[in-house]
Specification:
Shape of chain B: globular
Low-confidence stretches of chain A: none
CATH architecture of chain A: Orthogonal Bundle
Structural class of chain A: mainly alpha
CATH class of the largest domain in chain B: Alpha Beta
Number of helices of chain A: 3
Helix content of chain A: 40-55%
Number of helices of chain B: 11
Order of helices and strands of chain A: HHH
Radius of gyration of chain B: 22 Å
Mean pLDDT of chain A: 87
Number of strands of chain A: 0
Strand content of chain B: 25-35%
Largest sheet of chain B: 8 strands, mixed
Oligomer: heterodimer
Radius of gyration of chain A: 11 Å
Chain lengths: ~80, ~400
């Protein structure tokens, strides 16, 4: 569920930048290297995730992969 | 027309005769004035002038706690004074003007700045500094003022004195609906309106014309070309003037566009240091906050020519948003969004962010249902650098403003 929502959020950001949408993500996908996100995209990602789940994923430092984000969302529970 | 004040939204109308009658019937005076009824505020200011006593204006929506803090509790220790001055002799506007020509030098008006940062600050002005920009002449005697500000704030006070000293009627527009505003303008043949750009933007779009209006004055924010042009359609006979005023200094500069010149009498008293407008203390009101010879306004300007000094306003110093080390001027972004067809109003603000420090967000009011977030964004990509484009664009019904009607930044 969370993975699908995350994909949707990432694609919202991609779409807003007129970039090619992504079909799927997995735990090892790297935000910068695999998904091509730069700092402004990451900033937007944090705001959108925060709006959805009320958690700031970058609060204690940089996260690199989808798996790390999912972990943070899980731990919050 | 012999009315002094009208408010169409509550069917309130007061003639000058009624004002004189009410003044004569006043037995007590207290310098603290907090009243939601504009007429009562105006009446109280006039009474203070006639008595030569200080008046302290408090916003109608200040809470008891706020007032206690602002006045350091002195509001509850100030007794009413008995009005024993002969006010019977005031039967006409001419009688009133006669009295107003002999204002007691001790008279002062005290107000609180809206305080976008922290607690409101207390500022006092003399009759001379508060009426510095009032123009009084035969030409102004038939004006009818649209009143579009809070009467306890500097801009409202300026309009009040301009109207009072020329004996002009005041028509309330502040806080009315768009329909009521236009109805008031048309029914009372309003000739002059002074308001924030945000107030004017909320009047758009409108397809009727209102030829009685001769002058529109604006200030408080930069005025954009799209709004100016739209206003020229609605008010075909109006000249548009931009004014620079602040609670701290009163009105200082006026211009027909966005470029400001310094009047000869202020030469050497207004200057630009490191792109910031600074004002000599001799032009300021009285307050504890002015300890230095020069007051730093926090308004960032761009100089066009040095002699004579000519400049335009860029932004507020503390309004620049830092996005990962890049400085973003919210006014520039707002202007770019406002130029998009179908956008009627916009607010750009910062949201704090753990990655970049801040992220640019905006609220947009649209008048064309086919417009959406990604269409707005697409258009901005041709106008703005990527880091200046809001990352979150929310469509909203209306834009949040501060108590003086300026755009909220956080």
């Amino acid at each position: 569920m969370k993975k699908e929502k995350l994909l949707e959020i990432i694609n919202t950001i991609k779409k807003n930048r007129n970039e090619v949408l992504i079909n799927s993500i997995d735990e090892t996908s790297d935000l910068r290297n695999d998904l091509g996100m730069e700092s402004l995209d990451l900033a937007e990602l944090t705001v959108r995730i925060e709006a959805e789940y009320d958690i700031d994923i970058f609060e204690d430092g940089i996260v690199n992969t989808i798996g790390e984000i999912l972990n943070k969302l899980e731990n919050k529970r | 027309m012999s009315f002094f004040y009208v408010d169409l939204s509550v069917n309130q109308s007061k003639t000058w005769e009624k004002l004189f009658f009410d003044l004569k019937g006043t037995k007590r005076y207290n310098k603290y004035c907090q009243d939601a009824d504009f007429y009562n505020v105006f009446k109280q200011i006039i009474l203070s002038l006639l008595l030569g006593e200080e008046i302290v204006l408090l916003d109608a929506d200040f809470s008891e706690d706020e007032i206690k803090r602002l006045t350091a509790n002195s509001i509850y220790e100030t007794d009413d004074i008995l009005v024993n001055k002969q006010l019977e002799s005031i039967e006409s506007k001419e009688d009133l003007f006669q009295h107003l020509r002999q204002i007691n030098k001790e008279w002062q008006i005290t107000l609180y700045t809206s305080g976008t940062t922290g607690l409101p600050k207390r500022i006092s002005h003399s009759f001379q500094s508060i009426t510095r920009f009032v123009k009084k002449s035969e030409n102004h005697s038939s004006n009818v003022w649209g009143f579009a500000y809070n009467p306890t704030h500097m801009a409202g006070i300026q309009v009040f004195f301009q109207a009072l000293l020329n004996g002009n009627p005041i028509v309330r527009l502040f806080g009315l609906s768009k329909e009521q505003i236009f109805e008031s303008i048309s029914e009372f043949a309003v000739t002059n309106i002074s308001a924030t750009p945000t107030f004017y933007r909320l009047l758009l779009p409108k397809f009727n014309q209102y030829p009685t209006v001769k002058r529109l004055t604006s200030g408080g924010e930069k005025f954009d070309e799209k709004t100016t042009n739209a206003l020229k359609q609605i008010f075909p006979n109006a000249k548009i003037t931009n004014v620079y005023a602040s609670t701290e200094a009163g009105t200082l500069l006026a211009s027909s566009g966005n470029n400001f010149f310094i009047k000869p009498e202020f030469k050497g008293l207004i200057k630009v240091i490191e792109n910031e407008l600074v004002i000599h203390k001799s032009l300021m009101g009285n307050s504890d906050i002015f300890s230095d010879e020069w007051y730093h306004t926090g308004d960032i300007v761009e100089i066009i020519s040095q002699n004579p000094l000519n400049f335009h306003f860029i932004s507020r110093k503390n309004e620049m948003i830092n996005v990962g080390g890049y400085k973003v001027n919210p006014h520039e972004v707002e202007e770019a969004i406002r130029e998009i067809d179908g956008v009627s109003d916009v607010r750009v603000f910062a949201k704090s962010n753990s990655v970049l420090g801040n992220i640019i967000c905006s609220e947009v009011v649209i008048n064309n249902d086919s417009l959406n977030e990604s269409l707005i964004r697409n258009q901005l990509q041709t106008k703005l650098q990527e880091f200046k484009i809001p990352r979150l664009i929310k469509l909203a019904d209306k834009i949040s403003t501060t108590r003086t009607g300026k755009i909220k930044r956080n």
